[in-house]
Amino acid sequence: MNSLDSLLASISKENKIYYVLGDWNLDLINRHQTMYSRMFFPLITRPTRITSNTATLIDNIFTNNLNNLSVSGLMFCDISDHLPIFTPLLDQNKNLNTTSWLSFRDKSRNNVVAKFKDRLANVHWDELSECKDTDRLCLSVFS
Question: Domain of life of the organism in this record (predicted)?
Fold first, then answer.
């Protein structure tokens, strides 16, 4: 049993969530046997070191947390010959049943901005140009 296998065996007995990451210096595209046998699964599945002749997966994050809902990935930058890897860790105690909001821009004709522009286009500005009462003017435009 090698040192990595010994370490993973002792970690597996603790029944805790672990993340094991690093520059493994061996191509992990075809070599996850040790990690899989100890129930550690890779979060990175694409090559992390790309040259003109090779593409190897030598950097990875493994976890025994099968309930991991976070997004993992690579960042494309030229600070090293390896691509940086990441996974944001969620608070395991956080209630995931909370309400979440999704914002988007409605580009349809029913959009509020389109309605606003239509209203402005239909105002008879020449009739309102003499009005000095801004409250009345606003009511005339937006009613």
Answer: Eukaryota
pLDDT, tens digit (0-9, with 9 covering 90-100), for 57-104: 989 998 888 776 668 899 988 778 889 999 887 665 555 556 666 676
- 3-state DSSP helix/strand/coil % of the chain, to nearest 5: 25, 15, 60
Query: Can you list the pairs that 36-42 forms with residues at least 24 positions away whose Cβ atoms lie under 8 Å?
Result: 37/5, 38/5, 38/8, 38/9, 38/11, 38/12, 38/64, 39/12, 39/64, 40/8, 40/64, 41/66
d(CA 1, CA 68): 29
The token pair that represents 118 in the structure block: 């239509």
Quote the tokens at residue 80. Answer: 């090293």
Token pair in block for residue 125:
């500005």
Angle between helices 134-142 and 112-121 in degrees, nearest 10: 110
Residue 8's CB is within 10 A of a number of other CB atoms, namely: 22
Gap between the Cα atoms of 127 and 134, Å rounded = 14
